[in-house]
Design brief:
Helix content: 25-40%
GO molecular function: agmatinase activity; metal ion binding
Distance between the termini: 23 Å
Protein name: Agmatinase
Cofactor: Mn(2+)
CATH superfamily: Ureohydrolase domain
CATH architecture: 3-Layer(aba) Sandwich
Pfam families: Arginase (PF00491)
Structural class: alpha/beta
Number of helices: 8
Radius of gyration: 17 Å
Number of strands: 10
Order of helices and strands: EHEEEHEHEHEHEHEHEH
CATH topology: Arginase, Chain A
Oligomer: single chain
Strand content: 15-25%
InterPro entries: Agmatinase-rel (IPR005925), Ureohydrolase (IPR006035), Ureohydrolase_dom_sf (IPR023696), Ureohydrolase_Mn_BS (IPR020855)
Length: about 290
């Protein structure tokens, strides 16, 4: 896996032991925060989540499943050129494409939210009919941010243009420009601001039998539940509701082909509160969405 750091120190997410060849799931870090508009630091998120995962149980009482029965490989963090979003995107796209081609379930850890865009490009090559579930505090529907089209404020707009807004399902949003909200409400995308679990459960009925990619921005949580993020936004959901949404997807019968969780920023995470939440979400995603 030449896209990954050869000096990787061996920190892995709890329970990861299978080789790449023998695994059905690949957990990987995308340590990029080159375009953040407020507070950087999410490039440190993947490793801190791994470090705090040692405090997790490997058994999920929600799903009555245990990680020991799942084969997943933690590949470590990608080597991404500092300050170069265009080159970083190409590396992520190529690497994610390899995961899909090898029949793996890619489960990515960000990093800023722009990292989702190249993974979705690779997912579309693998399955052109893939739908996109977006759980986030922010619309991420700008065409550019201060003149820059490669920004963590633009990935969902790019995905809408790639797969059609009617295939994009967005939940929990409570911040954005008026133009972004206007686009969300008129473009044909499925847009459920402020709430997550209940509208998601409704929409999952029409996604039955479809392939979906799921992206969770940790700032969908209220800062009381997840202070360690670059652009915290008051008025969010609880960690309990986010887990409810993850479990609803698991129970729905939709075919999740890949996922990511992004924007965990350890420099602002007193007591590792946000990393611990993210680690638990990853455990539930592994057990609920993969085979």
């Amino acid at each position: 896996m030449d896209a990954f750091d050869p000096a990787y120190t061996g920190k892995v997410f709890i329970g990861s032991s299978a080789s790449y060849e023998d695994s059905s799931v690949v957990l990987y870090g995308m340590p990029m925060d080159w375009t953040v508009s407020f507070r950087p630091g999410s490039r440190f998120g993947p490793n801190r989540i791994r470090e705090t995962s040692i405090g997790l149980e490997e058994y999920s009482p929600y799903l009555d499943k245990h990680l020991e029965n799942y084969s997943y490989h933690d590949a470590g963090d990608m080597m991404l050129p500092f300050g170069n979003p265009a080159k970083s995107i190409e590396i992520i796209k190529e690497t994610a494409g390899r995961f899909f081609a090898d029949g793996k379930f890619p489960l990515g850890i960000g990093g800023e939210h722009l990292v989702t865009w190249p993974v979705m490009q690779a997912a579309c090559v693998h399955d052109p009919s893939v739908a996109f579930i977006h759980i986030d505090a922010h619309t991420d529907l700008r065409e550019d941010y201060e003149g820059e089209p490669l920004s963590h404020a633009t990935p969902v707009r790019k995905i809408c243009e790639k797969i059609g807004p009617e295939n994009v399902y967005s939940y929990g949003v409570r911040s954005g420009e008026k133009e972004e909200f206007d686009y969300a409400r008129t473009s044909g995308m499925h847009f459920s601001p402020f709430e997550v679990a209940e509208p998601l459960k409704r929409d999952l009925q029409e996604l039955q039998g479809r392939s979906v990619y799921v992206s969770i921005d940790i700032d969908v949580l209220d800062p009381a539940h997840a202070p360690g993020t670059g652009t915290a936004e008051a008025g969010g959901i609880t960690s309990k509701e986010l887990l409810e949404a993850i479990h609803a997807i698991a129970a729905s019968g939709v075919h999740v082909v890949g996922a990511d969780i992004v924007e965990i920023s350890p420099p602002y995470d007193s007591g590792d509160q946000t990393a611990i939440v993210a680690g638990k979400c990853i455990r539930e995603m592994l057990l609920g969405w993969t085979k």
